[in-house]
Amino acid sequence: MNAVTAFPATDTRVCNAMSVDVEDWFQVGAFEGVIDKADWPTLEARVERNTDAVLTMFAETGIQATFFTLGWVAKRNTALIRRIVDAGHEIASHGWDHQRVFTMTADQFAADLRAARETIEDAAGVAVTGYRAPSFSIDQRTPWAHSVLAEAGYRYSSSVAPIAHDHYGWPDAPRHAFRPVAGADLIELPITIASIAGREMTTGGGFFRLFPGAITHRAVRQANACDQRPAVFYFHPWEIDPGQPRVANAPLKSKLRHYSRLGAMAGKLRTLIAAHHWGRVDSVIAIEAARLP
């Protein structure tokens, strides 16, 4: 039995959300303490080649997804943004330069949203209606964030991780789609949570790379079994790039999180994609909106 058929397929009536957080290897939260943003333009850019590899994978597996993109990246890679849109994927915002929302004021957040959206829309030629906060940084420290998003006219956010984590997390948040602002149409679609031996983790990113794929497969099936709810999965283009530069002065914990099992990621993704039904986040939002009050 091969790796793809080793996992029972999910309920194909449920469309799960496949998402990609488009940022380069030097823009991640794990390295923000050792790589200065002023140095970003001098570092080797690999986001275009890695995102193109993701686009090829999605074309070969026949799925569409949402690409949450930094404004900083869109400004420098306009042709890439057009290729994403031309391939039938959704383009959405990941903020300007990966600044976490809880480090900003409401006014700063609004300005960050505006700058990123204008740049991404100029590059893409389509409207941007979705947002994901860098490092899932909308939580109990940012009670104003969803209101700012609603006022800016966003249709949805996928910025909440309903777990406790050293970098992010809002443990008391709902685990399925909800309307965070009374009287507004904005929907928050939290990342799906998996569990192993009593420990909770997000379905995607480093946890997906580091732990057995069966954990994520089970989380997707459990979400689908719960009143046919969609699962939400994410990863980054740099996670399929084992040849990326190494940051020698990064903390050991950050290195382990960032570099472990990069060579295994592409194969694990193909297995996950084959076992479940995937689509764009905005398509999932349309379905969830119909079931919300």
Walkthrough of the structure:
- The protein has helices spanning 47-61, 71-76, 78-86, 106-124, 145-151, 205-210, 213-225, 252-259, 262-275, 281-291, and strands at residues 16-22, 66-69, 90-93, 130-131, 156-157, 187-188, 193-196, 199-202, 232-235, 278-279.
- The longest helix has 19 residues, at 106-124.
- Residues 1-5 have low confidence and may be disordered.
- By secondary structure, it is α/β, with parallel strands linked by helices.
- It has ten helices and ten strands.
- Helix content is 37%, strand content 12%.
- It starts with 15 loop residues before the first strand and ends with a helix.
- Strands 1, 2, 3, 9 and 10 form a five-stranded parallel beta sheet that branches. The protein has a three-stranded parallel beta sheet with strand order 4-5-6, with helices on both faces.
- Helix 3 (78-86) packs across helix 4 (106-124).
